[in-house]
Amino acid sequence: AADELVKDEL
Amino acid sequence: MNIFRFAGDMTHLCSIVVLLLKIEATKSCAGVSLRTQELYAVVFVSRYLDLFFTFISVYNTVMKVFFITSSFCIIWYMRHHRIVSQTYDREQDTFRVAFLVVPCIFLALLVNHEFSMVEVLWTFSIYLESVAILPQLILLQRTFNVDTLTSNYVFLLGAYRALYILNWLYRYFTEPGYSQWIVWSSGTLQTAIYCDFFYYYVVSWRKNERLSLPS
Question: What is the rounded distance in angstroms from the CA atom of residue B144 to the CA atom of residue B151?
């Protein structure tokens, strides 16, 4: 699921 | 945040600053692809929609706002600045961006982590970023004798991609559960496009050197 993804990168 | 990630972000930021300074100082955007700049604006806007619902850090927010505003600033210069807009290589910058945008839309609809508006747009931005430099690379090959600042811009963008790969490797080995296949594969493609360009760049640079030798 999307919330497991690391999205702190730019 | 590790050193590779930070250095990568800073090179990305520097590349944009170099480009803006070049445009402002020389009052010229010769050799700069407006199509690539517009693609980057699309990339940043579709990816950074999360500015409205997730807060990661002040650093993260500031960088996102910088990338969005600076890309629009470059586009404004190239399209509307009285002097700069006249130096735009309109006839040479002819890459059909639909060939990049349309496949990226379809791929994002097919291959994504979750079928939602925000998630598909995020995935689309990742795919589009990996190929957004192509109009710029083709323009640089066509107008080879442009000032070094334009090549510095492209070089810094390439360095940013290489540092991001080191960042992913570092995070993969240090953070348990860290994995993001879509970003990794697109990022690798993006870096491969740069490597191809650098190969061409070095070859023709050496050829030019040899030709200019006194006989």
Answer: 9
Q: Which residue has the tokens 């640079």?
A: B205
Q: In this structure, are residues B128 and B71 in contact, taking their beta carbons and an 8 Å threshold?
A: no
Tokens encoding B136: 């710029």
- Structure-token pair, residue B179: 């994995």
> What's the longest Cα–Cα distance across chain B?
65
B93-118 pLDDT per residue, tens: 999 999 999 999 999 999 999 999 99
Q: DSSP class of residue B145? A: T
Q: Is B67 on the interface with A (CB under 8 A)?
A: yes
Question: Does the pLDDT at position B215 exceed 60?
Answer: no
Residues of chain B neighbouring A6 (CB-CB closer than 8 A)? 171, 178, 180
Q: How far apart are CA B205 and CA A9, in angstroms?
A: 35
Query: What does the domain layout of chain B look like in residue ranges?
Result: 3-206
Complex ipTM value: 0.81
Let me know the angle formed at the C-alpha of B129 by B56 and B65, rounded to the nearest 5 degrees: 40
Contacts of range B22-25, beta carbons closer than 8 Å, 24 or more positions apart: B22/B147, B22/B149, B22/B150, B22/B153, B23/B74, B23/B77, B23/B78, B23/B84, B24/B77
Determine whether the interchain pair B56/A7 forms a contact, defined as Cβ–Cβ distance below 8 Å.
Answer: yes
Residue A2: per-residue pLDDT? 46
pLDDT digit string, tens, across residues B137-152: 888 888 765 567 777 8
Contact B64, B44 (CB under 8 A): yes
